[in-house]
Prior knowledge:
The protein is an alpha+beta fold. The protein has four domains: 66-211, no CATH class; 219-272, no CATH class; 300-413, no CATH class; 417-599, no CATH class. Helices cover 20% and strands 37% of the residues. The chain has nine helices and 39 strands. Helix 7 (500-510) runs antiparallel to helix 8. The longest helix is centred in the first third of the chain and has 41 residues, at 2-42. The termini are far apart. Mean pLDDT is 77; it is low at 1-84 and 185-197.
Amino acid sequence: MKKLFNQKGFTLSIFSAIIGVLIMVLIGSNIYTGYLLYKNKKTEKLAEINNVASNTAQQAENNNTNPNVDSADSSVVNTAEQKIELTKDDTTGEVNVDWVTEPIKISSYKDVLGEYYNDHNLTEQQLKHLNEVNYYKVGRVNGGKYDGKNFFVMNYSVPFGYNIIRGIKDGGNIIVLKKYSDDIYNDPEGMTAIDWGLYIQKFIINDNLTIANFDLPESIKIPNSNILLIKSSEETKIFVTDSSNLKKLFQYEDGKYVYKDETNCYIVRAKDGTGRQYHFDISFLEKKEDGSELKGGSPNLNNITWNNGGKNKNDYFFQTPGQCGYADCYSYALYIKDELQIKVAGKTSNGGVVYEFANVNDKKASEILKGIYNEYGQYRADKETYEKFLNNHPLFFWQDPFGDYIAFTNSAYQSGVECGKPVIYLYPEKESDIFVWVNPTGGFKITEPVYNNGWQVKAKPNGEIYNYDDNKMYPYLFWEGYGLNYERPQEGFVVSKDEVEEFLNEKLIKLGLIKKEADEFIEFWLPRMQEKNYYFITFVPQAEFDKLAPLAVSPKPDTVIRVFMDYEGLDEHREVEAQKIITPKRKGFVVTEWGGAMHK
């Protein structure tokens, strides 16, 4: 009986083991099947993109047409799932374009981008993007491989500005001329895109072709003047004919004009209808060693001999100043209404003259000069006397070739404010592809990682950031630059040097930062706040910070917290009205940023 039981038990054990194995196989099969379904669903869009390229080529072959692709070489765009290869056209040399008199605006994207882009293939958001792009036919190629093909400019809005794509329509494709177009980036949802607007399944990239008859003159002579306008490296990204805020100044060639916009920048229309900035060749500005353009947002030494025979040793700004950057191309002294308000103050290196106020006690002159003096010396115990300030040529004027006066401000009396190390943290609720744009309108000083019209990253809920451009991990996105003007709050706190750390620990948490962010803030700023006995500290309201350096994130976060500190060193304690702080709630997908303004 015992032997029979053992045999039966053994038989049952084998049976149980077999059943167990079968169950595990079934479970494993279901898991694997689920994984495949998940993966297939997530890569569905990417497969569609790749199929479009092959379908286009097959259709061209069936129609006995050449898709005009000379090489299997490709330009690669990264996505979270895989790399999508963009077809490249290796045609070299120059193309000539017979330009139309006026750009012809095309009403529908389908007339430019072809039949692929129809309502059945596009999501609602993609269709919205394509409809927001401005499409212009601007000419026809004359000669060469693309003889007779239409030349298009696509102008579309991105956060804080516009982008431009220039290309040749070749059948169902657009041959994008990279030298004349903004860069290509990747859409966070997996569809390749040129920034926000254009989906590039039908785009072929050409790195080499140049347009023989596109470039504008390097310099333009201003009538009745020996001053030249010099072509800038910057495009305006708008169509001159579409802009209502341009003032026509003069005709430099038959039918070609120089314009001035509302930010005091000088604009010339290119042959495709877009604009290019020009600036005055001011001969008494000392040239920069690196050969960069002489812009008045950074100080320039001026070669001037004052009336008393002394040689100028001061640097001057000539752009409209602000707390953290510059707004206009030139700071025009519109308050000078009469030549009697000014007098010759010195001669320039080329024999010209510069002016100062004729009477510093005149109402308008006193208002302007005391405004500069008070702003410069607001919190300085070592500020110069007003008399010494006046003797040091704080402000002079140069008359431009059009009879208007540009104000040059002595850099010694300019608010020495620079935006310092803003950093951006990302905390999505789940691991996500994220696009981040920030736009300090005065430009960047440095970024990390490299800013290519935006950061394309993958972020984790713990804040870790993977940057697709260099395949590296980062704790945050870092930038330094210059921004818009802002009004510094008068309310704040005066804190002794020894209490700054404790103060920041308390206030940063109240402002919505977590301990890790506050610690990194203090690590950066505390060493810079040890020279003076006291510090006036205030925090710029987030609405003002948004003007200073607008921020856009896609997908849209649930919570955005931006902390921007403005501070000034003091020799003595002073009473100020305490600033009210409201603590925000962190919920959902959270984006935080901190930075500051250093008053030198």
